[in-house]
């Protein structure tokens, strides 16, 4: 696969409540990859509507995710930032890949089961084929690397299976592949940030309790309050990683500390091992405020001038389209469409 141009693609849904998990699991890594790779970062609005979204709120949330990318340090002039629905290749390739992907493959997707819940009959068909559209997002740019949180690993494996089957079905066994097999980039000390109220649940946008997550728009007081109230256990912090076994809340807070300070968990425990949460939590709150408050402030500055965000998105869409269009044309030709 060495002959593919290295290219990064990732997406975030504009569904509100962008949180610390989104930042540490994804957006922070988007920024880190920019120096070494060509990057495309997408606000995936087509994915968002797999669950009902209020149209006015959706529009605002598209701006919010765009602002978060920029405020976190994504360079939208050197790289590409846009919203998915503006580039028709996503939906078009998505359809073709719906015909490559298998029902049996989708039936294994745990995120669908979680999101559809008990009333699966009433979930949208879009929610079911969501991973095929995600594969199309990535493959439309023949992207090679995909930075995501741990919860997207299974979707990435499916994207690789789809790429492989497309290559096989349209080119045969021995021809050089048309699509690369995209690699997940799941890095950092907090690839799965857990709820602050329950260490067994993922921090999520849709959890009813606001105390379960720190959002990117929380101010310093809110950040400090949520960390102070975060669930813990009564023991002091252990001296090494092994000591975090069976302590999900402690593990989560230490992981967050490590990721926010760009250290590994062992380094944090070397400093805080033996200390009580009454000492650790204020240090974590200070660190979180130091990292997140400037991002929140910059987001609100950007959101005050949506016309600028609009201009970034329009420009990004034109540049994304210029990359995806030729790929889609080639796919259409390979499939046998008259174009
Ligand atoms: P979403 O909000 O579902 O569009 O997710 C956007 C990105 O954030 C994806 O790469 C997710 O894997 C990542 N992400 C979402 N929740 C978490 C979490 N609790 N911990 C780490 N990464 C997360
Ligand atoms: N499914 C991802 C999520 O919910 C968002 C997403 C859509 C994505 N398309 C993508 C992520 C392509 C990486 C690459 O988090």
Account of the protein in words:
This protein has 339 residues and is mainly α. The chain has 2 domains: 7-191 and 306-335, Rossmann fold (3-Layer(aba) Sandwich), CATH 3.40.50.620; 210-301, Orthogonal Bundle (Tyrosyl-Transfer RNA Synthetase), CATH 1.10.240.10. Helix content is 53%, strand content 6%. It has 13 helices and 5 strands. The strands form 2 sheets. The chain has a 3-stranded parallel sheet with strand order 1-2-3. Helix 1 links the parallel strand 1 (7-12) and strand 2. The radius of gyration is 21 Å and the shape is globular. The model has no long low-confidence stretch (mean pLDDT 97). Adenosine monophosphate binds next to helix 1.
Give a quick set of tags describing it:
three-stranded parallel β-sheet, 13 helices, binds tryptophan, Tyrosyl-Transfer RNA Synthetase, ATP binding, 53% helix, mainly alpha
CA distance, first residue to last residue: 29 Å
Helical proportion? 40-55%
The CATH superfamily title of the largest domain: HUPs
Overall mean pLDDT score?
A: 97
| Content of β-strand | 5-15%
Judging from the principal axes of the Cα atoms, what is the shape? globular
- Number of helical stretches of at least 4 residues: 13
Count structural domains: 2
The CATH first-level class of the largest domain comes to Alpha Beta
Could you spell the SSE succession in H and E letters? EHEHHEHHHHEHEHHHHH
CATH architecture of the largest domain: 3-Layer(aba) Sandwich
| Main sheet overview | 3 strands, parallel
Sequence-ordered SSE layout with sheet pairings:
Blueprint: E1 7-12, H1 20-33, E2 38-43, H2 45-48, H3 55-72, E3 80-83, H4 89-98, H5 103-106, H6 110-116, H7 125-139, E4 145-147, H8 153-171, E5 183-185, H9 220-229, H10 248-260, H11 265-272, H12 277-303, H13 306-335
Parallel strand pairs: 1-2, 2-3, 4-5
Helix pairs in contact: 3-12, 4-7, 4-13, 7-8, 9-12, 10-11, 10-12
The structure holds adenosine monophosphate (AMP) and tryptophan.
Tryptophan (TRP) is lined by residues 9-11, 13, 44, 47, 134, 137-138, 146, 148, 152, 155.
């Amino acid at each position: 696969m060495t002959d593919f141009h290295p290219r990064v693609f990732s997406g975030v849904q504009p569904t509100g409540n962008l949180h610390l998990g989104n930042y540490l699991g994804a957006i922070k890594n988007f920024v880190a990859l920019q120096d070494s790779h060509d990057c495309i970062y997408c606000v995936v609005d087509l994915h968002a509507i797999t669950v009902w979204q209020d149209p006015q709120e959706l529009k605002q949330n598209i701006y919010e995710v765009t602002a978060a990318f920029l405020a976190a340090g994504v360079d939208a002039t050197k790289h590409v930032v846009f919203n998915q629905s503006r580039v028709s290749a996503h939906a078009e390739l998505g359809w073709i890949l719906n015909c490559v992907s298998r029902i049996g493959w989708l039936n294994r997707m745990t995120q669908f089961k979680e999101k559809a819940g008990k009333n699966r009959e009433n979930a949208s068909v879009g929610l079911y084929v969501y991973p095929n559209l995600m594969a199309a997002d990535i493959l439309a740019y023949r992207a090679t690397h995909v930075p995501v949180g741990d919860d997207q690993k299974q979707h990435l494996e499916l994207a690789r299976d789809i790429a492989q089957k497309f290559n096989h079905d349209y080119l045969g066994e021995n021809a050089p592949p048309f699509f690369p097999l995209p690699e997940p980039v799941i890095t950092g000390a907090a690839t799965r940030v857990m709820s602050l109220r329950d260490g067994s649940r993922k921090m999520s946008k849709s959890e009813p309790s606001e105390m379960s997550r720190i959002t990117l728009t929380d101010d310093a007081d809110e950040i400090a309050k949520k960390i102070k109230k975060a669930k813990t256990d009564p023991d002091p912090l252990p001296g090494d990683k092994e000591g975090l076994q069976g302590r999900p809340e402690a593990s989560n807070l230490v992981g967050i500390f490590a990721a926010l300070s760009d250290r590994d968990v062992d380094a944090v425990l070397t400093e805080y091992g033996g200390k009580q949460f009454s000492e650790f939590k204020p240090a974590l709150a200070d660190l979180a405020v130091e990292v997140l408050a400037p991002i929140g402030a910059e987001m609100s500055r950007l959101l005050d001038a949506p016309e600028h965000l609009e201009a970034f998105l329009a420009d990004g869409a034109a540049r994304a389209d210029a990359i995806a269009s030729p790929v889609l044309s080639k796919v259409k030709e390979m499939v046998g469409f008259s174009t």
